[in-house]
Design goal:
The chain has a single domain, classed as Jelly Rolls (Sandwich), CATH 2.60.120. The chain contains five helices and 20 strands. By secondary structure, the protein is mainly beta. Pathway: Carbohydrate degradation; glycolysis; D-glyceraldehyde 3-phosphate and glycerone phosphate from D-glucose: step 2/4.
Length: 271
């Protein structure tokens, strides 16, 4: 596999998200261009996520990923607040977690006091290769399980109440993505950690290809590997960044803080 080292001093996205944001290094994170607001990044270290890995004692990068929640154009700041929308960006380190890929822990979104629902999330890949893993439930039976493979410009929607984790496919290249979230976002890890992670563990084989191993802490399930669905029923357009879609038609993403307005879409949802 060809080795890739990103130039973290400048823009390194293979898809234009419509925001003037650049990657930084040491530690990994973001810088914001003129007219862009954003917070200091939060980092997730290996020790923070080890409970949800197949091998909690594995080696890997100290900082696994960095998160900037509440990013956008200054001209939209008040509109985003009034709509209860929040845009977040995440970048992953290159490398591996033992034999596992760099990934998030797996969680469910907390029930938002704004909608009284666990809220959905709309992902968009900016650079790298991703798998958005999701399962219907965090209990002993995980229900339907999906591994949605996505590249730069692809959009993936996680429905309300589902467990999900974001996985970097290529160990030689960092993964960066943006996402629309509810402004009162919060993550619930308890049931996932009780089951020692998600129902299917992604692991690298000898050729650095992702294979899937069953987590024996769950009842039997089937994993469906697929490409992203067509989300036109949610108003999401192809070939346009989700931030630019918001700029042109802000109401498109009202279903994120208020998922009940698309209640019929979540029944038997296929991501």
């Amino acid at each position: 596999m060809k080795s890739y080292q990103p130039d973290r001093s400048g823009h390194d996205f293979t898809f234009d998200p419509g925001l003037d944001i650049k990657l930084t290094g040491d530690p990994i994170g973001f810088s914001y261009g003129p007219g862009i607001f954003g917070p200091e990044v939060e980092t997730r270290r290996l020790k923070d996520i080890s409970e949800s890995l197949m091998n909690p004692d594995c080696d890997g990068p100290d900082i696994v990923y960095s998160i900037a929640m509440d990013v956008g154009k200054a001209v939209h700041r008040e509109l985003l607040k009034s709509m209860h929308l929040l845009y977040g960006v995440v970048t992953y380190a290159a490398g591996k977690l033992g034999t596992e890929p760099i990934r998030s822990q797996g969680h469910i979104h907390k029930v938002s006091p704004f909608s009284n629902w666990s809220t959905p999330e709309v992902y968009e890949i900016w650079s790298g290769e991703a798998i958005i893993y999701m399962q219907e439930y965090a209990g002993d039976s995980p229900g339907r399980c999906f591994a949605v493979y996505a590249g730069p410009g692809d959009v993936v929607v996680v429905p309300p109440y589902w467990v999900h984790a974001t996985i970097s496919v290529n160990p030689d290249r960092p993964l960066t993505f943006g996402a629309w979230c509810d402004r009162e976002y919060g993550f619930v890890y308890d049931d996932v950690r009780k089951h020692k992670g998600i129902a299917w563990y992604p692991v690298f084989d000898g050729s650095d290809e992702i294979q899937w191993q069953v987590n024996p802490c769950y009842l039997k399930s089937e994993l469906i590997c697929k490409s992203p669905s067509d989300y036109s029923m949610l108003g999401i357009k192809k070939d346009k960044s989700i931030y630019r879609t918001f700029e042109e038609e802000p109401d498109t993403f009202l279903f994120v803080p208020s998922p009940q307005i698309k209640e019929d879409c979540w029944k038997e949802f296929v991501p």
